[in-house]
UniProtKB/TrEMBL annotation:
UniProt cross-references to InterPro entries, sorted A to Z: Beta-barrel_OMP, OMP/PagP_B-barrel
Source organism of this protein record: Anaeromyxobacter diazotrophicus
Keyword vocabulary terms for this entry: Signal
UniProt keyword Transmembrane present: no
Keyword match Signal: yes
Pfam families, per database record: OMP_b-brl
Lineage: Bacteria, Pseudomonadati, Myxococcota, Myxococcia, Myxococcales
Identification of the protein by name: Outer membrane protein beta-barrel domain-containing protein
Signal sequence bounds: 1-24
Domain Outer membrane protein beta-barrel: 13-181
């Protein structure tokens, strides 16, 4: 089994088991009760929105350099699947940049996303999400006489799976750490892995 397959199965298992694991999670502390009777690690309460900004290292397919990936996320808390498991729907937007000998590559994607967050305590939560959307891939090639330079942009389908940990710094801000798998269909397929990725969630 490849590393990509193992990561995909692990993330899928997290999403499937979150509601069941939530039933066995410990009760919330006094600190949680000051936050609308909900664990701060879950993020925004049901009916509310949270916003996240993340920065990570993105590992591209062979032939390109490791580069930065900047991500923004807006998520709406739809419902509680269990006392400590919350379903959110929203969208993630990301920009990644990579160099390669004789040129550069960047991508810009927008992916509708579904996320399940499981509170282990009022301060710590695990989450997993999946999304399907669109991305623009842009390649620029430097001029190398006698060959001219050039560039090309392509619209592609983007599929994402991710998982991570949220830690409540205070009742309105969480520290995030995650790993993400991004699959793109462009004359075949290409896989990008983002790790480590860290950020802040505001709610």
């Amino acid at each position: 089994m490849t590393k990509t397959s193992r990561l995909t199965l692990t993330l899928a298992a997290l999403l499937a088991l979150a509601p069941l694991a939530a039933e066995a999670a410990p009760t919330h502390s006094t600190r949680a009760s000051t936050y609308g009777n909900s664990e701060p690690s879950l993020g925004a309460a049901v009916g509310q929105v949270d916003y996240s900004a993340l920065l990570g290292l993105e590992f591209p397919p062979d032939g390109m350099d490791v580069g930065p990936r900047l991500t923004g996320e807006i998520m709406y808390s739809v419902m509680d699947l269990a006392p400590k498991a919350r379903l959110k729907l929203g969208v993630r937007g990301a920009f990644g940049y990579h160099g390669f000998p004789g040129g550069s590559f960047w991508l810009l994607d927008a992916v509708p996303d579904a996320k399940i967050t499981l509170a282990l305590t009022d301060l710590v939560a695990l989450y997993g999400d999946v999304g399907l959307g669109l991305a623009v891939h842009h390649v620029s090639v430097d001029a190398q006489p006698p060959f001219p330079g050039g560039s090309d942009s392509t619209l592609t389908v983007a599929f994402q799976m991710g998982g991570g940990v949220a830690y409540a710094i205070n009742p309105r801000v969480n520290l995030l750490g995650e790993i993400r798998l991004d699959l793109y269909t462009r004359s075949g397929s290409s896989t990008f892995v983002s790790f480590p990725t860290v950020g802040l969630q505001f709610h």
